[in-house]
Design a protein that fits this description.
Number of helices: 9
Distance between the termini: 39 Å
Number of strands: 12
Radius of gyration: 18 Å
Structural class: alpha/beta
Helix content: 40-55%
Strand order of the largest sheet: 2-1-3-4-5
Strand content: 15-25%
């Protein structure tokens, strides 16, 4: 999805210029700003394919902006790009609904790779949608391509990472999955912070599935997780 519209919010003007220049060279359309108020207005009035947010911003911080984005769109990819690198910061960012959290300093190549991955997941090819079989999870119907989890009149939107994780658990439902296998498949690595991220996303999926008591994601001590469907 080159030519995708990205809102990039960064108050370090030098870093913003260099990053924006590289992203535009890679073929993306970048709308950038340096404070939270301006970003808040752009989020309210514009439609973007992906958001890149610093956390420490003047006037309104990146975490607040992420909440605003999720109120408007539950599925659009959000990447945090921040110098705040503690475990708690990363976990909190993911709990707000972000798809990834990249710490500074970072490589442009890594950032572009992340962008490409999430934009690819967010693009839906209508011809593929027609061929897609919606999968059942207990009382839920799950569409990975549309990022939807449906239970009667209740329709919940998933982030791309949530959909990838749920799809992997469903493909191996009833089986114990090792943490490292999940991480390598869904995150592409089994680093410490990715492991902590997994716990956050498992918690988010449990909340999405809690209306059906027959569907559970079980902890398997010192090993990993298992999706159990009893109805």
């Amino acid at each position: 999805m080159r030519n995708a519209r990205i809102l990039y919010v960064e108050d370090d003007l030098t870093l913003s210029f260099v990053t924006r220049d590289n992203l535009e060279r890679a073929g993306y359309t970048i709308d950038s700003c340096e404070d939270g108020i301006t970003a808040y207005e752009k989020i309210a009035n514009g439609n973007y394919d992906l958001y890149i947010l610093d956390v420490m911003l003047p006037k309104i911080d990146g975490f607040t902006l992420a909440r605003k984005i999720r109120e408007k769109d539950e599925a659009v990819p959000i990447l945090f790009l921040s110098a705040k690198s503690t475990r708690d910061d990363k976990i909190y960012g993911l709990q707000l609904g972000a798809d990834d959290y990249i710490t500074k300093p970072f490589s442009i190549e890594e950032l572009i790779l992340k962008i490409e991955v999430f934009l690819k997941r967010s693009s839906i090819d209508p011809s593929r949608m027609q061929k897609e079989s919606v999968l059942r999870i207990g009382n839920f119907m799950f569409s990975k391509l549309e990022l939807k989890l449906i239970n009667g009149n209740e329709i919940q939107s998933l982030t791309h990472r949530e959909a990838e994780l749920l799809s992997f658990l469903l493909a191996h439902s009833g089986n114990i999955l090792k943490r490292e296998d999940i991480l390598n498949k869904v995150w592409g690595n089994d680093h410490f912070f990715s492991s902590r991220s997994l716990d956050v996303f498992i918690s988010r999926l449990r909340k999405l599935l809690r209306s059906d008591t027959g569907v559970k994601i079980e902890n398997v001590h010192n090993i990993g997780y298992r999706l159990v469907i009893n109805n």
